[in-house]
Amino acid sequence: MLLVSDAPVEYQKIFKDVTEKGERDCSLPLYFSSSAFSDSVPSEVYEPRFLYVMQEEYCIVSSKDSSIKCIGTSESTTCHMIILFFAETVLLAHTGIQDYNALELMVSRFLTDANATETSKVDLYLVGGYDDNSGVSFDLLNFLLHYFAKHKTRFNLKLICCGLFNSREQSFYHLPKVTGVLVDIDAKKVLRCQINKDQRGPVPILRHIWLYSSFGLKAIYNSKNGCVVLPMFKITLPAKFKLLEVIDDEYALSIFSTSPEAESDCFITELREMYGFVKDCIKKKIDPFKGKERLCFKTETDGKWIECDA
């Protein structure tokens, strides 16, 4: 069930207000806070106990967990960021696909870890997506709103910085305003943020390859032992990546992105780095997993990630 200000609401109305131009009551707390969020100044990550969530990943963290105190994600264009709060537990996900089974598995795991029931009221924050030319963002938002509206658990929508609320005009097209969020676990706050490339650990290249090697949302963190866990997978990429050897960046954007006009300057650079890494692994017979079934990492108090045997 979907709630706004603790009252049931039809998800179609929310979707229409967020995606269609026209009159809407922007004095409503939900719309006022969403508009203010999109215009807020991006925060920076100062907490060393920080975990970065990549596309098609999610993490569930308890405030009792001393290893991680902030979680965040960035580089979202048509993707959406989902944040759930209940009691002492928080979830952050970054997704761009309409996969009901993966979404259901993720939410069920969160509700179990948080000891929530069908009568519980879970706070829901949705951020990301914009008025893109292809309509990918709106389709994904409609899918997400429909899912939470039909769920037996009550989800109280606290923020919806999506659609028109997250769009700005530039030349002949739109761009997203907010592309990253930071979640302060203890304070239960969601902030607009900017995350540096060197804060996206651990093993960002391997996790980026993981995105393309398997479909669906992936749990990246085990809050019970404070470890980031990356299961072993085949180091490979789809065949279209070979095109990076012969095409320029502009053409590559049109092939690899759902929103070429909105991608960051490093988008194609990082794809080329990842492709080069995979080629080296295959050519030189390098095993990044060192024969292990999984790689595990813990963060030290200074924020440095170290490999562990958990």
Strand order of the largest sheet: 2-1-10-9-7-8-5-15
Provide the helix percentage: 25-40%
Radius of gyration: 19 Å
Distance between the termini: 38 Å
How much beta, percentage-wise?
25-35%
Number of helices: 7
Instruction: Specify the biggest β-sheet.
Output: 8 strands, mixed
Structural class: alpha/beta
Kindly report the average pLDDT value: 91
Number of strands: 19
- What would you call the shape? globular
Secondary-structure element sequence? Answer: EEHHEEEEEEHEHEEEEEHEEEHHEE
Unreliable residue runs: none
Give a written overview of the molecule.
With 310 residues, the chain is α/β, with parallel strands linked by helices. It has seven helices and 19 strands. It has helices at 11-19, 29-38, 100-113, 136-150, 204-213, 249-256, 267-283, and strands at 2-4, 7-8, 43-44, 50-52, 57-62, 70-73, 80-86, 89-95, 121-128, 154-161, 167-170, 173-176, 181-184, 189-194, 218-219, 221-222, 227-231, 294-299, 305-308. The strands form four sheets. The protein has an eight-stranded mixed β-sheet, sandwiched between helices. The chain is globular and about 60 Å long. The two termini are 38 Å apart.
